[in-house]
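Many introductory courses stop at the sequence. We go one step further.
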Amino acid sequence: MRRKIVAGNWKMNGSKDLVNSLVGQIRSELASLDNGVEAVIIPPALFVGDVVRQADGQIAVGVQNIACWDSGAYTGEISAGMAKDSGCGYSLVGHSERRQLFGETDEQVSVKVVKALASGLDAVICVGETLDEREAGKAEDVVSGQVRKAVSEVGAGQWQQVVIAYEPVWAIGTGKTATAEDAQAMHAAIRAVLKSLGAPADEISLLYGGSVKADNAAALFAQPDIDGGLIGGASLNAEDFVSICRAMPGRS
C-alpha cells in the first residue's frame, strides 16, 4: 500500500510566532483525521527544532535542502545527518527553485538523494518541466530524464524511502495548476520510468505540487497515480492545509 502524503513546504517564510500558532493548530485538527494521510511540515532550517517540538511526534518534519557532503568546511550547509539528528524524517531534494536560482544540477540531486537515504531520511525528489519545455512537447522527456538521474544510485533496499514530487515549474506559485488529467498522465509516466528501472514502482508514492489548494485537491488526489501533494503557500494557513489533508480519499 502506497503512503498518502501531504507535505507543506514553507519555503523562506515563517517565524517563531507562526510555528507556535500554526503547528499546534494543524496537529490538533488532524488528530481526528482517519483517512490515512501522513502530514509533513517542511519549514526553514532555523525553525526545524521548534516545529519538531510543536509537532510532538504526530506530524512528520522535513528540511528543504541538504548538502552534498557529510561534514566539513562548507559554511552555510546542512548535512542529511544533521537533519536526521534534529528530528527530521524527510528532505526535499532538487526543488525547482534550487535548480533555477542556485544552479543545482541533476548530478547534485543524485548525490543528495544518496546522502538523504544513507542518513535514514526519506527523499522527496522534485521534478518538473518549464513552460517552454511543455510547449515544445518535451515535458515527459525532461521529467523522465530528471527521475532517471535522481534515482540512479538508489539501492535495492532503499526504495521505500523514495518519494517523487512532480511540480510543473510553470504552476509553482503562479495560481496555475495542471488539470487533474494532465497531472495524472505525468504521474503515470513517472511510474512507468520507475518500473523500467526495476524499482517497485507500485509501492512508491508520487505527489503533485503546483498551486494545490483546497478547491482542487480532491480532483487531483482522486487520480490513480497521485498519492498526495507538495503544498506551498496553502501550507502557511492551518485551515487551508488541513482542508487539503481532508481531501485525501480514505484508504481502500
